[in-house]
Design a protein that fits this description.
The chain has 122 residues and is α+β, with helices and mostly antiparallel strands. It contains 3 helices and 4 strands. Helix 2 crosses helix 3.
Length: 122
């Protein structure tokens, strides 16, 4: 017996990279707000308001019967330099490895770890 899945017109299943791209902003926000390595480097600067500037997905692959996506990404986070303070850097490069998990049709960040974190403009 042949079973065909019929999808709405224009529907295309996302590949692993596209799924990671959908969660880059969420990951960057978590790093800026909660990651000890990132917040420690942020504290070394006279900048504030750090947010995602750019990113590069180094790898993204399905795992666990395609219910997980494991990834490695490089993020560039930038902040606004306080004009009344001496410059101490305002751009942070972060390498992150992690895993997204599909639960009941919705992807979410399962786990991640900061591999490296440093100022890139000081």
């Amino acid at each position: 017996m042949l079973i065909l899945k019929i999808f709405p017109e224009g529907f295309m299943a996302k590949n692993a990279r596209e799924i990671v791209e959908d969660y880059i902003e969420v990951l960057a926000e978590r790093l800026v707000n909660d990651d000890p390595a990132v917040t420690s480097v942020m504290a070394e600067t006279n900048a504030s308001g750090f947010e995602l500037d750019s990113y590069e997905i180094k790898s993204a692959e399905f795992a666990g019967d395609s219910k997980e996506v494991v990834f490695d990404v490089r993020l560039s986070l930038s902040g606004d330099q306080d004009p009344e303070s001496p410059p101490c850097g305002s751009c942070i490069q972060v390498m992150v490895s992690g895993c997204l998990e599909n639960q009941e049709g919705k992807w979410q960040i399962k786990a991640y770890g900061t591999e490296s974190c440093s100022l890139s403009d000081f």
